[in-house]
Write a structure and sequence with these properties.
globular, 17% helix, 2 helices, 139 residues, alpha+beta, two-stranded antiparallel sheet, Lipocalin
């Protein structure tokens, strides 16, 4: 009987110890302001309004432009996109977004290659040499 209790206790401890081990999450944190030139971040983005929200400056396109990534949305200077799906494999993030400009709605697919925590490259499959590098801005 005592042996059975010890066995049950050992099994309970073993089962509970697996819960305390943190699971590693490999999802890349895309949230933030991204500019094509790290040196131009302050000319592309600024905090505005009561909420101190990050927005584009008036002439952000002159300095290379960029985008703002939020939990389920990507914002450009003139459009807003809702993330419909996200898939990650190795260092590639595949996003399908529904974008709305002032005139129309369209679905766009993004292939982003993670270079490091603060650098990504948008790739255009089938178009060799056609890619755009973005740097995370600390605003």
């Amino acid at each position: 009987m005592i042996a059975l209790r010890k066995l049950v206790l050992a099994a309970a401890i073993a089962a509970g110890s697996g819960l305390s081990i943190p699971q590693q999450v490999n999802a890349f944190e895309l949230t933030g302001a991204w500019a094509t030139s790290a040196d131009q971040c302050s000319k592309v983005f600024a905090r505005k309004g009561r909420a101190n929200q990050v927005n584009f400056t008036n002439f952000s396109g002159v300095y290379g432009g960029g985008f703002i990534a939020e939990a389920n949305r990507l914002r450009g200077k003139f459009e807003s996109c809702l993330v419909k799906s996200r898939k990650e494999s190795d260092q590639i993030i595949n996003l399908v977004v529904a974008c709305a400009s002032g005139i129309m709605v369209s679905n766009v697919q993004f292939f982003l290659k993670v270079v490091d925590d603060n650098t990504i490259t948008r790739e255009f499959p089938g178009m060799e040499g056609m890619d755009v590098t973005y740097h995370r801005c600390q605003i």
